[in-house]
Protein backbone atom coordinates (compact mmCIF):
# COMPACT_ATOMS: atom_id res chain seq x y z
CA UNK A 1 0.00 0.00 0.00
CA UNK A 2 1.33 3.41 -0.96
CA UNK A 3 2.32 5.57 2.00
CA UNK A 4 0.45 8.87 2.20
CA UNK A 5 2.64 11.95 1.95
CA UNK A 6 2.81 14.42 4.85
CA UNK A 7 2.21 18.11 4.20
CA UNK A 8 5.27 20.29 4.75
CA UNK A 9 3.83 23.09 6.87
CA UNK A 10 7.24 24.79 7.07
CA UNK A 11 7.39 25.35 3.29
CA UNK A 12 5.92 28.89 3.36
CA UNK A 13 8.61 29.89 5.86
CA UNK A 14 11.23 28.38 3.55
CA UNK A 15 10.03 30.49 0.60
CA UNK A 16 10.04 33.61 2.75
CA UNK A 17 13.63 32.80 3.65
CA UNK A 18 14.49 32.34 -0.02
CA UNK A 19 13.13 35.83 -0.79
CA UNK A 20 15.18 37.27 2.08
CA UNK A 21 18.31 35.50 0.83
CA UNK A 22 17.90 36.68 -2.74
CA UNK A 23 16.55 40.22 -2.44
CA UNK A 24 17.43 41.49 1.04
CA UNK A 25 20.71 39.77 1.98
CA UNK A 26 21.78 39.49 -1.68
CA UNK A 27 23.45 36.12 -1.16
CA UNK A 28 23.87 35.49 -4.87
CA UNK A 29 26.91 33.22 -4.60
CA UNK A 30 27.11 30.22 -2.26
CA UNK A 31 23.73 31.00 -0.72
CA UNK A 32 22.02 30.70 -4.08
CA UNK A 33 23.84 27.51 -4.98
CA UNK A 34 22.75 25.94 -1.70
CA UNK A 35 19.09 26.74 -2.42
CA UNK A 36 18.95 25.80 -6.11
CA UNK A 37 19.38 22.51 -7.93
CA UNK A 38 22.16 22.70 -10.56
CA UNK A 39 19.58 21.90 -13.26
CA UNK A 40 17.03 24.46 -12.10
CA UNK A 41 14.37 25.39 -14.69
CA UNK A 42 13.66 29.11 -14.39
CA UNK A 43 10.57 29.95 -16.44
CA UNK A 44 10.44 33.72 -16.22
CA UNK A 45 7.92 35.46 -18.46
CA UNK A 46 10.66 37.50 -20.15
CA UNK A 47 12.99 34.54 -20.74
CA UNK A 48 13.64 30.84 -20.15
CA UNK A 49 16.71 30.18 -18.02
CA UNK A 50 18.63 27.25 -16.58
CA UNK A 51 20.52 26.69 -13.35
CA UNK A 52 21.21 29.05 -10.44
CA UNK A 53 22.97 31.33 -12.93
CA UNK A 54 19.66 32.25 -14.55
CA UNK A 55 18.16 33.29 -11.22
CA UNK A 56 21.34 35.21 -10.35
CA UNK A 57 21.33 37.08 -13.67
CA UNK A 58 17.68 38.04 -13.20
CA UNK A 59 18.39 39.35 -9.70
CA UNK A 60 21.51 41.26 -10.75
CA UNK A 61 19.65 43.00 -13.57
CA UNK A 62 17.05 44.30 -11.14
CA UNK A 63 19.43 45.10 -8.26
CA UNK A 64 21.73 47.08 -10.56
CA UNK A 65 18.97 49.55 -11.36
CA UNK A 66 17.29 49.41 -7.90
CA UNK A 67 20.23 49.04 -5.48
CA UNK A 68 18.13 49.50 -2.32
CA UNK A 69 15.47 47.03 -3.43
CA UNK A 70 13.50 45.39 -0.62
CA UNK A 71 11.07 42.50 -1.07
CA UNK A 72 8.25 41.58 1.29
CA UNK A 73 6.28 38.36 1.02
CA UNK A 74 2.55 39.12 1.03
CA UNK A 75 1.35 35.52 0.90
CA UNK A 76 2.38 31.93 0.24
CA UNK A 77 0.02 29.05 -0.54
CA UNK A 78 1.43 25.56 -1.00
CA UNK A 79 0.66 21.95 -1.80
CA UNK A 80 2.59 18.69 -1.92
CA UNK A 81 4.50 17.07 0.91
CA UNK A 82 7.76 16.02 2.50
CA UNK A 83 8.22 12.88 0.38
CA UNK A 84 7.28 14.26 -3.05
CA UNK A 85 8.35 17.86 -2.56
CA UNK A 86 6.25 21.01 -2.29
CA UNK A 87 5.13 23.72 -4.68
CA UNK A 88 4.40 27.17 -3.26
CA UNK A 89 2.59 30.10 -4.86
CA UNK A 90 4.32 33.23 -3.56
CA UNK A 91 3.38 36.90 -3.94
CA UNK A 92 6.02 39.58 -3.31
CA UNK A 93 5.74 43.35 -3.01
CA UNK A 94 9.01 45.02 -4.01
CA UNK A 95 10.08 48.61 -3.38
CA UNK A 96 13.22 50.43 -4.41
CA UNK A 97 14.75 53.64 -5.73
CA UNK A 98 15.70 53.90 -9.39
CA UNK A 99 19.22 54.99 -8.48
CA UNK A 100 21.24 52.99 -10.98
CA UNK A 101 21.42 52.92 -14.75
CA UNK A 102 20.50 49.73 -16.50
CA UNK A 103 17.70 47.93 -18.26
CA UNK A 104 15.25 50.76 -17.44
CA UNK A 105 17.50 53.57 -18.62
CA UNK A 106 19.44 56.24 -16.76
CA UNK A 107 18.81 56.63 -13.04
CA UNK A 108 15.81 58.85 -12.31
CA UNK A 109 15.74 58.78 -8.51
CA UNK A 110 12.09 57.75 -8.57
CA UNK A 111 10.72 55.47 -5.87
CA UNK A 112 9.11 52.36 -7.39
CA UNK A 113 6.62 49.79 -6.09
CA UNK A 114 5.68 46.67 -8.00
CA UNK A 115 4.79 43.02 -7.54
CA UNK A 116 6.33 39.73 -8.48
CA UNK A 117 4.43 36.44 -8.37
CA UNK A 118 5.92 32.98 -8.68
CA UNK A 119 5.38 29.28 -8.19
CA UNK A 120 8.37 27.46 -6.75
CA UNK A 121 8.89 23.70 -6.51
CA UNK A 122 11.48 22.27 -4.14
CA UNK A 123 12.32 18.91 -2.63
CA UNK A 124 14.67 18.49 0.32
CA UNK A 125 15.02 22.28 0.32
CA UNK A 126 16.52 22.41 -3.18
CA UNK A 127 14.59 24.45 -5.73
CA UNK A 128 14.37 22.77 -9.12
CA UNK A 129 11.53 24.62 -10.90
CA UNK A 130 10.29 28.21 -10.91
CA UNK A 131 7.49 29.92 -12.83
CA UNK A 132 7.82 33.69 -12.31
CA UNK A 133 6.12 36.86 -13.51
CA UNK A 134 7.38 40.36 -12.73
CA UNK A 135 5.20 43.43 -13.20
CA UNK A 136 7.52 45.13 -15.67
CA UNK A 137 4.58 47.24 -16.85
CA UNK A 138 4.26 48.84 -13.41
CA UNK A 139 7.96 49.75 -13.43
CA UNK A 140 7.76 51.30 -16.89
CA UNK A 141 4.63 53.31 -16.10
CA UNK A 142 6.13 54.77 -12.94
CA UNK A 143 9.22 55.78 -14.92
CA UNK A 144 7.10 57.36 -17.66
CA UNK A 145 8.37 54.89 -20.30
CA UNK A 146 6.40 53.62 -23.26
CA UNK A 147 5.88 49.88 -22.76
CA UNK A 148 5.71 48.75 -26.40
CA UNK A 149 8.76 50.84 -27.33
CA UNK A 150 10.79 49.46 -24.40
CA UNK A 151 9.80 45.91 -25.34
CA UNK A 152 10.75 46.42 -28.97
CA UNK A 153 14.19 47.71 -28.01
CA UNK A 154 14.77 44.85 -25.54
CA UNK A 155 13.75 42.28 -28.14
CA UNK A 156 16.49 43.65 -30.45
CA UNK A 157 19.29 43.28 -27.87
CA UNK A 158 21.95 40.79 -29.01
CA UNK A 159 21.96 39.12 -25.56
CA UNK A 160 18.21 38.51 -25.46
CA UNK A 161 18.51 34.73 -25.86
CA UNK A 162 15.42 33.06 -27.30
CA UNK A 163 13.04 35.81 -26.17
CA UNK A 164 10.03 35.57 -23.85
CA UNK A 165 8.95 32.25 -22.40
CA UNK A 166 6.61 30.23 -24.60
CA UNK A 167 5.73 26.53 -24.90
CA UNK A 168 8.29 25.88 -27.66
CA UNK A 169 11.08 26.77 -25.21
CA UNK A 170 9.79 24.73 -22.29
CA UNK A 171 11.52 21.65 -20.93
CA UNK A 172 10.02 18.89 -18.77
CA UNK A 173 10.86 19.12 -15.09
CA UNK A 174 10.46 16.91 -12.02
CA UNK A 175 7.17 18.47 -10.90
CA UNK A 176 4.17 16.90 -12.62
CA UNK A 177 1.39 17.77 -10.17
CA UNK A 178 -1.70 19.83 -10.88
CA UNK A 179 -2.23 21.22 -7.38
CA UNK A 180 -4.50 20.09 -4.58
CA UNK A 181 -8.18 19.19 -4.37
CA UNK A 182 -9.33 22.16 -2.31
CA UNK A 183 -12.78 23.46 -3.17
CA UNK A 184 -11.42 27.03 -3.24
CA UNK A 185 -8.86 26.28 -5.90
CA UNK A 186 -11.42 24.42 -7.97
CA UNK A 187 -13.98 27.23 -7.57
CA UNK A 188 -11.50 29.92 -8.65
CA UNK A 189 -10.38 27.81 -11.62
CA UNK A 190 -13.98 27.22 -12.71
CA UNK A 191 -14.72 30.94 -12.45
CA UNK A 192 -11.80 31.97 -14.67
CA UNK A 193 -12.60 29.24 -17.18
CA UNK A 194 -16.16 30.54 -17.51
CA UNK A 195 -14.96 34.14 -17.81
CA UNK A 196 -12.45 33.25 -20.53
CA UNK A 197 -15.18 31.34 -22.36
CA UNK A 198 -16.94 34.73 -22.66
CA UNK A 199 -19.14 34.15 -19.63
CA UNK A 200 -18.61 37.68 -18.35
CA UNK A 201 -21.97 37.61 -16.53
CA UNK A 202 -20.17 35.41 -13.97
CA UNK A 203 -18.22 38.42 -12.73
CA UNK A 204 -21.10 40.38 -11.12
CA UNK A 205 -22.51 37.10 -9.86
CA UNK A 206 -19.29 35.89 -8.20
CA UNK A 207 -17.34 39.02 -7.22
CA UNK A 208 -18.06 40.90 -4.00
CA UNK A 209 -19.57 44.33 -4.83
CA UNK A 210 -16.69 45.89 -2.88
CA UNK A 211 -13.99 43.60 -4.29
CA UNK A 212 -10.51 45.05 -4.76
CA UNK A 213 -8.21 43.85 -7.52
CA UNK A 214 -4.57 44.41 -8.49
CA UNK A 215 -3.75 43.91 -12.17
CA UNK A 216 -0.69 44.20 -14.46
CA UNK A 217 0.87 47.62 -14.73
CA UNK A 218 0.25 48.39 -11.06
CA UNK A 219 -3.39 49.08 -11.96
CA UNK A 220 -5.90 48.84 -9.13
CA UNK A 221 -9.58 48.19 -9.72
CA UNK A 222 -12.68 47.93 -7.58
CA UNK A 223 -15.90 45.98 -7.83
CA UNK A 224 -17.21 43.69 -10.57
CA UNK A 225 -16.98 46.46 -13.17
CA UNK A 226 -13.23 46.75 -12.61
CA UNK A 227 -12.74 43.01 -12.97
CA UNK A 228 -14.85 42.94 -16.11
CA UNK A 229 -12.79 45.69 -17.76
CA UNK A 230 -9.56 43.78 -17.18
CA UNK A 231 -10.68 40.30 -18.25
CA UNK A 232 -12.73 41.60 -21.19
CA UNK A 233 -9.75 43.57 -22.57
CA UNK A 234 -7.47 40.53 -22.32
CA UNK A 235 -9.90 38.14 -24.01
CA UNK A 236 -10.82 40.73 -26.68
CA UNK A 237 -7.16 41.07 -27.68
CA UNK A 238 -6.76 37.30 -28.07
CA UNK A 239 -10.29 36.16 -28.98
CA UNK A 240 -9.36 32.72 -30.31
CA UNK A 241 -6.48 31.98 -27.94
CA UNK A 242 -6.53 28.78 -25.91
CA UNK A 243 -6.94 29.32 -22.17
CA UNK A 244 -5.45 26.59 -19.97
CA UNK A 245 -5.20 26.33 -16.19
CA UNK A 246 -2.01 24.44 -15.42
CA UNK A 247 -2.04 24.45 -11.63
CA UNK A 248 -4.43 25.28 -8.81
CA UNK A 249 -4.08 25.52 -5.05
CA UNK A 250 -6.75 26.19 -2.44
CA UNK A 251 -5.95 27.06 1.16
CA UNK A 252 -7.79 27.41 4.44
CA UNK A 253 -5.36 28.76 7.00
CA UNK A 254 -6.00 29.88 10.58
CA UNK A 255 -6.61 33.64 10.86
CA UNK A 256 -6.82 33.95 7.05
CA UNK A 257 -9.80 34.00 4.65
CA UNK A 258 -10.16 31.10 2.20
CA UNK A 259 -7.64 31.61 -0.61
CA UNK A 260 -6.70 30.19 -3.98
CA UNK A 261 -3.78 30.40 -6.40
CA UNK A 262 -3.77 29.56 -10.11
CA UNK A 263 -1.18 29.32 -12.86
CA UNK A 264 -2.67 29.69 -16.32
CA UNK A 265 -1.79 30.54 -19.90
CA UNK A 266 -3.39 32.07 -22.94
CA UNK A 267 -1.88 31.05 -26.27
CA UNK A 268 -2.94 32.22 -29.71
CA UNK A 269 -2.87 35.06 -32.21
CA UNK A 270 -3.32 38.75 -31.49
CA UNK A 271 -6.46 39.16 -33.59
CA UNK A 272 -8.56 41.70 -31.72
CA UNK A 273 -8.63 45.19 -30.27
CA UNK A 274 -8.19 45.07 -26.52
CA UNK A 275 -5.36 45.16 -24.01
CA UNK A 276 -2.62 45.36 -26.67
CA UNK A 277 -3.94 47.84 -29.21
CA UNK A 278 -4.42 47.27 -32.93
CA UNK A 279 -4.52 43.60 -34.02
CA UNK A 280 -1.23 42.40 -35.49
CA UNK A 281 -1.82 38.68 -36.01
CA UNK A 282 1.30 37.93 -33.95
CA UNK A 283 1.55 34.62 -32.11
CA UNK A 284 1.42 35.33 -28.38
CA UNK A 285 1.85 33.27 -25.22
CA UNK A 286 0.70 34.84 -21.95
CA UNK A 287 1.92 33.27 -18.71
CA UNK A 288 -0.46 34.29 -15.93
CA UNK A 289 -0.63 33.90 -12.16
CA UNK A 290 -3.70 34.73 -10.07
CA UNK A 291 -4.38 34.79 -6.33
CA UNK A 292 -7.78 35.33 -4.72
CA UNK A 293 -9.39 35.66 -1.31
CA UNK A 294 -13.04 34.79 -0.67
CA UNK A 295 -15.62 36.14 1.75
CA UNK A 296 -19.34 35.79 2.47
CA UNK A 297 -20.25 37.83 -0.63
CA UNK A 298 -17.93 36.09 -3.07
CA UNK A 299 -14.45 36.86 -4.35
CA UNK A 300 -13.30 39.83 -2.27
CA UNK A 301 -9.67 40.33 -3.36
CA UNK A 302 -7.79 39.34 -6.49
CA UNK A 303 -4.21 39.69 -7.65
CA UNK A 304 -3.60 38.72 -11.29
CA UNK A 305 -0.31 39.25 -13.03
CA UNK A 306 1.19 38.70 -16.45
CA UNK A 307 4.21 40.54 -17.81
CA UNK A 308 2.96 43.08 -20.31
CA UNK A 309 6.49 43.63 -21.60
CA UNK A 310 6.81 39.94 -22.48
CA UNK A 311 3.60 40.17 -24.50
CA UNK A 312 4.70 43.37 -26.25
CA UNK A 313 8.02 41.73 -27.13
CA UNK A 314 6.14 38.94 -28.89
CA UNK A 315 3.88 41.40 -30.71
CA UNK A 316 6.42 44.03 -31.73
CA UNK A 317 9.83 42.43 -31.30
CA UNK A 318 12.08 43.46 -34.16
CA UNK A 319 9.34 45.24 -36.17
CA UNK A 320 8.05 48.77 -36.37
CA UNK A 321 5.21 49.66 -34.09
CA UNK A 322 1.81 50.36 -35.65
CA UNK A 323 0.53 53.91 -35.60
CA UNK A 324 -2.29 53.01 -33.22
CA UNK A 325 -0.63 51.53 -30.16
CA UNK A 326 -2.75 50.87 -27.10
CA UNK A 327 -2.86 53.75 -24.62
CA UNK A 328 -1.30 52.86 -21.28
CA UNK A 329 -3.78 52.97 -18.36
CA UNK A 330 -3.19 55.41 -15.55
CA UNK A 331 -0.67 53.94 -13.15
CA UNK A 332 -1.64 53.33 -9.55
CA UNK A 333 1.06 52.26 -7.09
CA UNK A 334 0.76 48.68 -5.88
CA UNK A 335 -1.04 48.36 -2.61
Automatic annotation (TrEMBL):
It comes from the Bacteria. Residues 191-299 form the SnoaL-like domain. Gene3D superfamilies: 3.10.450.50. InterPro entries: Cyclase_SnoaL-like (IPR009959), NTF2-like_dom_sf (IPR032710), SnoaL-like (IPR037401). It holds the Pfam family SnoaL_2. One of its GO terms (biological process) is polyketide metabolic process. This is Putative ester cyclase. It comes from Salipiger profundus.
Amino acid sequence: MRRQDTADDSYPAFLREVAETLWTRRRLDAGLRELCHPQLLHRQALAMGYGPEALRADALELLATLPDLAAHTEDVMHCGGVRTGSLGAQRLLLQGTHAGGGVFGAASGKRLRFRMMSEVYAKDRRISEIWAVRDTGAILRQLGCDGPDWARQRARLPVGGDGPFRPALDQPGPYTGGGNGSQWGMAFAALLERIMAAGFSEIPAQYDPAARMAYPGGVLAEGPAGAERFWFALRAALPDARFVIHHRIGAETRLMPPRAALRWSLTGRHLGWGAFGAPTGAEVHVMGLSHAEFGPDGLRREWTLYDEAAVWMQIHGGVALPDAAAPMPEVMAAQ
